[in-house]
């Protein structure tokens, strides 16, 4: 990992309970080491909560408050203000939540924390569904993906939470990928230097949930970026867009075909996804150009 | 302002805000709801004027207000919040959570009817529906009692490590303006030391809170919660004696209050604002030579089983007046009292009237009428709409 700029400091320890090959565990290691020891974490029920390990063990070096599924934004605000009340304004409050706890049930509390511009670093490990409960649809599940609750494929698009938070003029919102660890580390570092609400969505190909082999996590996350399914970009203060991976060279084909959740797709459905992704990419490019 | 005891004209809700202010909470997550709102507005006014140093959080819902309260308490601070009715119901999931993590939050709830239909009337079903959440529950009947209760609640909650909810009735208490003795800051500081949460979220300590536990650990946590509830009675009695000495107001031992119960043939049992009305009715009936008394239940959770048994020992008839309704059960206080007295030697006849449920007005005259019905009534396990 010499290409990722961080000092390993027992922020994330062996003995964690992630599935073999899980790229969320890898991402947690990078993020937690970047955040450092002066931090308190808030974790709702999610893969992260499982990865931390059961009571009385914890794979994470910093204290974790395990909160309810819908409360991360509010709980983190409580921790933040209590730390401030004790003069510990320099202690980082770090949320690590899944997409269910962020896009769906936790969105109300998150949006309110963004509106108040609470000084919180919020990481969403986005595996595009309720993977921890066996793989059901969330608002983050992309078009046509089959899940436990949408066996014939989801009929609506993935909720664009980045644009929603940008519309709230959040100081910093970004996407990150375990296929681009240095970029992820840089984004955490950048976010750490900003005061106020910061949000990073990390694309997490779920090996059992998406039907990938143990060694396919990184490949899948790289393809997601390269085909534009999960563009790498950041938005500062709601208007300054920066694209961190500028080329969209691949079609969605290779990315989709690796995964079990897309195996039922007809050529027509694949084409529909391609058209939708192309349009989204064009819209994103316009925003990037407008802020140059 | 000079720091001395002051007599102020305050609404019940503003008395609560004064009580909270004197306890120096460090974090106050608040969300508006009628008829609680004057509590939060007074607190934010105090903070804006620099008379109170608290982090105010204004989230999008009561659910988030409670989520923030729990997290702030677990991070080692003193936390106060307030709510009512639907707001309390929205918090329900997290009320269990607050007790489970053993936070010492103090929350004021203004008892108001729960929808549907929509209403704004004094009815305690909102808080009674939270009786299994692991919160200490206290009911008061005046602004003065609410102020005193808030101050004592912080000490109690922090001592036994249980969240504490104090309740007073919508409008009858929340908006009624009365002269209230507001104690000096020094007297409250002497009574209530700064909070010290040993097991808190702190990078220096490194402990985590609330990860998933196996059955045996989970069971032990529930037993610990029960043990803490068992400690409440003794702790509350001591705290009420201590506060009584400082404030000079009778705290009646903090658990139940007996009013003119000497040689009583009939004792009316109730809680909240109805106690004041019952007292008035009892004065009239005593003047008529009738042996009637009041047993006011101040502490509802934990339910003071032994103390109500003692208080009602040898009383022939007991009439419970409920300003709440549990469909399929009846009046909650009526039913809880029946279980509390079960198996007691010379147990009284118990009658339960759903007198104030829905927020209907219950006048002293009505209460005398209810007392009159007891002579010919047959004790029944059912609560009666009257």
Task: Characterize the structure shown.
The complex is a heterodimer of chains A (292) and B (386). Chain A is of the alpha/beta class. Chain A has one domain (23-290): Rossmann fold. Chain A contains 11 helices and 8 strands. Chain A has an 8-stranded mixed sheet, with helices on both faces. In chain A, strand 7 (233-236) and strand 8 form a beta hairpin. Chain A is globular and about 60 Å long. Chain A starts with 22 loop residues before the first helix and ends with a helix. Chain B is of the alpha/beta class. Chain B has 2 domains: 6-247, Rossmann fold, CATH 3.40.50.970; 255-385, Rossmann fold. Helix content of chain B is 40%, strand content 18%. Chain B has helices at 12-22, 37-48, 62-74, 85-100, 125-128, 143-160, 185-191, 215-247, 274-287, 305-312, 332-341, 364-373, and strands at 6-11, 27-29, 55-57, 80-84, 106-111, 136-139, 164-169, 177-182, 256-259, 266-270, 292-297, 299-301, 317-321, 349-354, 383-385. Chain B has a 6-stranded mixed sheet, with helices on both faces. In chain B, helix 1 (12-22) crosses helix 2 (37-48) and helix 1 (12-22) packs parallel to helix 6. The longest helix of chain B is centred in the middle third of the chain and has 33 residues, at 215-247. The radius of gyration of chain B is 21 Å and the shape is globular. The termini of chain B are far apart. The mean pLDDT of chain B is 97. At the A-B interface, strand 1, helix 2, strand 2, helix 3 and helix 5 of A face helix 3 and helix 4 of B.
